[in-house]
Amino acid sequence: MTQPTPRPTVSRVYLARLKGTAVFDPLGDQVGRVHDVVVIMRLRGAPRAVGLVVEVSGKRRVFLPLTRVTSIDAGAVITTGLLNIRRFEQRATETLVVGQLLDRQVTFRDGSGGGTVQDVAMEQQRNRDWHITKVFVRRAGRGGLMGRRGEGVVVDIDEINGLAGTPEQQGVTSLLATLEDLKAADLADVLHELPTARRLEVASGLPDERLADVLEELGEDDRVEIVSSLDLERAGAVLDAMEPDDAADLFRELPAEKAAELLARMEPEEAKDVRRLLVYEPYTAGGLMTTEPLVLSPEVTVATALAHARRQDVTPALSAMLFVVRPPLETPTGRFLGVVHLQRALREPPHELIGGILDKDVEQLLPEDDIGKATRLLATYNLTALPVVDADRRLLGAVSVDDVLDNLLPDNWRGADEEVTDEAMTRTAHG
C-alpha cells in the first residue's frame, strides 16, 4: 500500500471534523478510523486532550495516546507504531468530545446569553501537549431557543462557562486536577505521602499511561499495593504501558500466583518481553536492561535517526545513543554493529547513512554481568547507556544510567533524608 506522505501537524484541529479520519501506521497501512477524542477537564487551565478512540476491525474501539501520534490533520492521522488492541474503557476523569461535549449548553461569561457547543478545537503547546483552546458555539435563537437562526461564533475556552459540566461532576476529579501538571516522579512523592485509602483512590483515577509512569517511580511496597488493588483487566493494561524492565521488577515483588494472573492479562508481545527479563537475576545486566532501546539498521539516514531520538516515550538517557544492528530490529536483534552517539549525529549531514558514523568500540555487557561492572563502565567512559549482547553478539537490550541509579539507591530512598547508604555501595561492589 502506498504510504501517505507525512505532513506538518496543523496548529489547530477541530475535533468534530476529525471523527471518521483514517489512522495509519508508520508503514502506511490503515489501522482504523477516529471515533472520538478523549480530554481531561482541569480546575485550572484549559482541558487537555490525551488521546483518540480509534475504531479498528470488527468495530472494536481502542485507545491511542496522542503521544504516539506523529501527524494529525483532517485527512489522516499517522502513528508511531502498532495500536494496543485492548478495548477502550472510559475512566471517571475522562470526557469524550463527540459523545459528551457536543451539544452541551454553555453560557458566555460576558453575560450575552448562552448557546450549544458545535465543535471544539485543540492546539499543540510548546511542551507538545494538546489543549482545548477554542469552542464553536451556536448562540440561542429568539426566545432562548437553540436553532439554525442562531449565530455561530468561535470563542476562547475561557470566555464560556459550563463546558466542564456540573459542580458535582467536577468534584470527582478535583484532587486529580491539582496533580495534573506534576512530573511522574513528583506525583510518586505525593502518592507516597497520602494515606492508603486516598493513595488508591488517586491511583485508580489516573489514565493507564500516567499510572504506569508513576509506578515506575514508586517504591516496592507502594506499587505492589496499588497494582494489587486494581482489577485484573486494568492492572494488565497498566503493566502493558510500563517499560518492560520496570514491569519485570514489579512482577518479582508480587506473589507468584498474582504475577501469573497478571501476565496472562497482558498483551502477548508485552508479556513476552517481561518473561525474557524475569529469567535473569535482578542485579545483573539482563535483569536491569530495557528490551526497547532505539534500534536502527545501518542504512538509515541521520535525519531519520534524529527523528527516532525525538520520541517522547524514550528516556533522555536512552535517546542519547542509537543502537545499530543487522535485521531483525526487534530484540533479540541480528548482529550488533555498534552505536551512534546523538552528539555525533547532530554534527553530520542529514542525508549521511548512520552506518558510516558508527562507534564500533563501545563497551558491551553480557546479560550475566553484575551491576558493579555496568556502573564502572558507565562511569569510566562517561556513557548514558550500554548495549547488552549475547554470545552471538545479538543485541538483547540496553542498560541505562537511570536503571543503575534506581537499583543503587536504598529501597526507602523516597522517604529518607540520608544520602546513598552502605547498602547501595555494597550492591555496587557485589552486584
UniProtKB/TrEMBL annotation:
Keyword tRNA processing: no
InterPro entries the UniProt entry points to: CBS_dom (IPR000644), CBS_dom_sf (IPR046342), Mg_transptr_MgtE_intracell_dom (IPR006668), MgtE_N_sf (IPR038076), MgtE_transporter (IPR006669), PRC-brl_dom (IPR027275), PRC_barrel-like_sf (IPR011033), SH3_actinomycetes (IPR058838)
Pfam families: CBS, MgtE_N, PRC, SH3_actinomycetes
Superkingdom assignment: Bacteria
Keyword field contains DNA-binding: no
CBS domain boundaries: 358-418
Alphabetically ordered keywords of this record: CBS domain
UniProt-recorded name of the protein: Magnesium transporter MgtE N-terminal domain-containing protein
Organism whose genome encodes this protein: Georgenia deserti
